[in-house]
Structure formats: structure tokens, C-alpha cells
């Protein structure tokens, strides 16, 4: 990255707004999609500066996206997916997957396999961040609120 | 006591669940929503939902049961429909509306086209591609080219959205068109990195819904659905890659 981080944040915000429209997000949720995407990308960028490790940075990015998504979901009463889907797209290792495909097509299988595994690990790191934040925040929320009567009731029978 | 009679209630539940599932809901969310709707209709429900089918059994207080199965194909992503159905399952007032009115409402949500006009979605796909290319390339040539290529790829991908096997075909076509347009624009912008334009252009086709719900389903112990979604994501990614790989024939 040669451009300043704040500029990246702004571009990421508008990019994720556009992704939100592609996924037909309801209008009242669009702004939060942009914020989630920008937060994810900034967390990724900052973590990359500190740790210099793509996997940890992807985990931080996914974590930030999910935090904003969970918060927006409870404020706007929308499913979390609505915010998380446009938010994580920026973090998907498309560049690496593309290079891996290139390597395979040129017959360079060893390098290609390495890149495929790295791609899968990064994807795993993003989803780990995503579910970590989801588990923490929804765990907090349910322990604060009274138990979910409906779901518990119909699972305990038989 | 069920409100409209068990069979009619079940029809409402299945219809709402199908709309959710076809528009990107995680399966645990669909099962939860089925539970909420059943309780508010005066029934108890047991359901088993996978990305390709819904099985619901409802039971009333006299332990009479009714069951319905619905196979799901043609999955898409219109997250505003998912939002509406989520709201419907939790707070729709069944007592104030007749069964016909409720089914009419569900049909109107099911058949409605997006609030965003199609050209706007295509434009936004292009802008998203451009933003992506700008962040990775930090160069205006690639950004402009990616805006055009991204819109073209999205238009190509939405051509076949109602056919069978549309997911594979539309992803493949999207990748192919992204590659062709990027190579064409590479002639006009000699300084631009063609590979970066392609990557930006295929970004709106990335199966974001499948990735997100795969992760969330797996963690919520919906192992079958999670693996099925992960398979869907891999299949779409492979289809895009096959389309892009045709650049070796140019």
C-alpha cells in the first residue's frame, strides 16, 4: 500500500456500498454495509502493518466486519448476513486464487498448490474472524436477555 | 389452537421458509423462523432444512400432525427479501389478516423485482469492481477499465439467471466476459495490468452469500448445510476460474 490508509478506508466504504446494491441489500441497511466493509479493510490494513502476516490480518478483518454486522443487526433489526456478505467481499483472496489458477494452467503445479492452500487458509481465517465475533456478541446478547423460550421449548420435547 | 387450520398454516410456513432459503438465509435462521411462525400460528414445529430442501412437521395440541416437503432449486440472492421474511416470521400479525391476504403478501414478496433498477445494479457492480481494482492497483487506468469490465461481467452473468444450472453457467459466462473485456481494454490502456482488471471485474460474482452462510451454518452445528454451502462456493469459484482460463486460447 502506497496510498494513505484513510483513503483506502474511504474507497472501501464506497466499494462495499456498491457491493451492497449488487446483493440487493435493503436501503436502510446500505450505510452499515459500507461501514462494515471499511472497518474490515482498515482492520486488515492496520494488522498487516503490525504483524506483517496476511492470515492474522484477514482474521482481524473478518472480526471487524462481523462486529459491525452484529451491532447493526441488533440496531436495525436485520439479519446479520445482510451486512456481513458485502463486508467480507473486500477481504476475499481473489488475487491469490487468480495467481494459483495461472500457475496451474502454466503447468507449475507445486507453486499452484502452495497458493491454493494459502488461499484456503486465508478464507478460513476470514471465516474464523467472522464466527468468533458472531459467537462472542450473540453469546453476550443471549446471556443478557432472557432465554429464547420458543426455540428451547420445541427442542426439548420427545 | 391453529389460526387457519393446520394445512393452510403449513403452506404459509413453507412458502416463507422457501423465500428465505432462496435468498441467502442460513439454514439455522430458516429453522428458527419456522419455529417462530409455528408458535405464532398456535402450533409446534420440527423442521429439517438444507440448502436444497425444506422438511417441516407441525403438531397441534391434540398431537395431530401435518408434514410438508419442498425441494429448493434456483437459489439467488436478494437480501431485502430475506430481511422482509425475517421480519414476517417474527412480527406479522396473523390474526388481523385472512389466509388469502397472507398468501398474497408472500407471493408479492416472492415475485417482486428488486427495488434497485437493473441498470443501477449493473452500474454498482462496475463501481465495486473499480473500487477493488483501485485498492489493489492504486492506478486510475485499471480502475476505469475494471468499471467497464465489471459491468459487462455482471450483465453477462444475469442473462441466464432463470435457467436450470444457472449458477454454474452464469458464473462461467461472467468470468469469460470479464476476461474478454479486460483483454480488449488492455489494448486501450497499455499501462494497465490486465490480470488486475480481470480480478476486479469478477469480484461481484464471488459467492459471498455462500461463503458467509457456510461459515455461520457450520458453527451453528448445521454440518450438512455448511458443507453443502462450502461446496456451492467452491463450484462457483471454479466456474469463474474456468471462464477466466480461456485467456490462454486468445
Describe the structure in your own words:
- The complex is a heterodimer of chains A (158) and B (250).
- Chain A has one domain.
- Helices cover 82% and strands 0% of the residues of chain A.
- Chain A contains 7 helices and no strands.
- Chain A has helices at residues 5-22, 30-51, 54-76, 80-89, 94-105, 109-144, 149-156.
- Chain A is globular.
- In chain B, 65% of the residues lie in helices and 8% in strands.
- Chain B contains 10 helices and 3 strands.
- In chain B, α5 packs antiparallel against α6, α7 packs parallel to α10 (223-245) and α9 runs antiparallel to α10 (223-245).
- The radius of gyration of chain B is 21 Å and the shape is elongated.
- The relative contact order of chain B is 0.11.
- At the A-B interface, α1, α4, α5, α6 and α7 of A face α2, β1, α3, α5 and α8 of B.
> What is the spatial order of strands in the main beta sheet of chain B?
1-2-3
Instruction: Summarize the helix and strand pattern of chain A as letters.
Output: HHHHHHH
Instruction: Report how far apart the termini of chain A are.
Output: 58 Å
Largest sheet of chain A: none
Overall structural class of chain A, as computed from helix and strand content, comes to: mainly alpha
As an assembly, this protein is: heterodimer
Helical amount of chain B: 55-70%
What's the order of the H and E elements of chain B? HHEEEHHHHHHHH
Strand fraction of chain B equals 5-15%
Query: What is the mean predicted local confidence, pLDDT of chain A?
Result: 87
Q: Flag low-confidence runs of chain B.
A: none
Distance between the termini of chain B: 67 Å
Which bin fits the share of residues in helices of chain A?
over 70%
* Morphology call of chain A: globular
Largest sheet features of chain B: 3 strands, antiparallel
- Compute the number of structural domains of chain A: 1
Q: Which structural class fits the helix and strand makeup of chain B?
A: mainly alpha
Number of helices of chain B: 10
Mean of the pLDDT scores of chain B?
89
Poorly predicted ranges of chain A: none
Which percent band covers the strand fraction of chain A? under 5%
